[in-house]
Amino acid sequence: MPPSSSSRSVFEIGKYMASLLRIEPGISSSTRSPSVAPPKPLLIATPSAAGEFPILVFLHGYLLYNSFYSQFILHIASHGFIVVAPQLYTAAGPDTSEEIKAAAAITDWLADGLQSVLPEHVQPCLSKLGLAGHSRGGKAAFALALGLVTGGTSTSSSLKFSALMGIDPVDGMGKGKQTPPPVLTYVPRSFNLDMGVLVVGSGLGQVKRNPLFPPCAPKGVNHEDFFNECRPPAFYFVVKDYGHADMLDDDTKGIRGKATYCLCKNGKSREPMRRFVAGIVVAFMRAYLEGNAADLTAIGDGSQVPPVQLQTIDFLI
User: Fold this and answer.
1) Average pLDDT of the chain?
2) In this entry, which stretches build a coiled coil (predicted)?
3) Looking at the domain assignment, is residue 72 inside a domain?
4) In Å, how far are 48, 79, 160 from 271, measured between CA atoms?
């Protein structure tokens, strides 16, 4: 079992070499049969070393490709975590119900299917499971954890999430314009979640890039509102001078990739924001999946310095 922490900063690449695996549904191989093929295409970031590692299921943002998060999930994997990032859809309307159900199906698949697609020397620790999402994926992650479209439970299997992370989550176009199913109730501390919660916000997310387009994380349905409904234990960080898409890869190609530069108000570069978000996710998962809160505490009290300026830090303990 790898150690739960190291002398390296969580904001730097960790001690493990990490690699990406692309897994398509319904494809058989010498190590995988159709019966355990995933329900959706997957991008998996995994440590290359032998060991047993906790798991993070990560849900992408609206109309984005999971590959746009490659540098982000590799950073997390380098600290000793297996990150499973499904491609939930390539086209979608306002209703998120189907992608929430797809995320539940992928989580159910982990028990029987994940080991079969990993290198033999890499073992997933199914009892240490986290859930995270960015933007609309953050909404979907909260909805899945709350059981909004899955009958009151997050999954139909015995697997249980122990940590939930919303990265600049967005519940629609604005207050009163939530996309179905609505997650926010606007009742403080109303989320009934039996796990620790991390909410990360971008300071520029609620700022319009130009008059023709709405902000990417509008006030009234963004990180502030999600945190207001969280119960303890919950942790909240807002990054100053960075935008909604600044955690993505440095170079996101294609029409959708180019749109991430022109639709959202952005910071000067993506690397600092990406390093911060990956690092705070690592620190949070070490605390709530591995029982070591040293990094999370150090970031909160300022003894571990992040690569960005934080405009808000709030802990509900």
Assistant:
1) 92
2) none
3) yes
4) 23, 17, 32
Active-site residue 134, yes or no?
no
Q: Give the model confidence (pLDDT) of 160-172 as tens digits.
A: 999 999 999 999 9
pLDDT exceeds 60 at position 134: yes
Per-residue pLDDT band for 30 (boundaries 50, 70, 90) equals: very low
Position of tokens 């509102």? 225
Yes or no: say if 54 and 127 are a contact pair by the CB < 8 Å rule.
Answer: no
Instruction: Tell me the three-class secondary structure of 124-176, residue by residue.
Output: EEEEEEEEEEECHHHHHHHHHHHCCCCCCCCCCCCCCCCEEEEECCCCECCCC
Is the pLDDT score of 294 beyond 50? Answer: yes
pLDDT at residue number 158: 74
User: β-strands 82-86, 42-47: how paired?
Assistant: antiparallel
Q: Is the pLDDT of residue 2 over 90?
A: no
In a domain, 8, yes or no: no
**Is the residue at 55 inside a domain?**
yes
The one catalytic residue in 78, 135, 154, 202 is 135
> Per the confidence metrics, is the pTM higher than 0.90?
yes
Is the pLDDT at 154 greater than 70, yes or no?
Answer: no
Query: Which member of 9, 154, 168, 249 is catalytic?
Result: 168
Q: Report how far residue 146's alpha carbon sits from residue 45's, in angstroms, rounded to the nearest whole number.
A: 26
Residues spanned by the domain of 204: 18-23+37-316
> 21: phi > 0 → left, psi -120 to 50 → alpha, else beta; which?
beta
The active-site residue, picked from 108, 244, 246, 295, is 244
pLDDT of residue 32: 46
Write the CATH number for 284: 3.40.50.1820
Number of domains in the chain: 1
Q: Is pLDDT above 70 for 276?
A: yes
Asked if the structure places residue 285 within a domain, the reply is yes
Distance CA 130, CA 281 (A): 10
Whether 79 is catalytic is: no
CA distances from 225 to 80, 183, 189, 222, 285 (A): 31, 10, 10, 6, 22
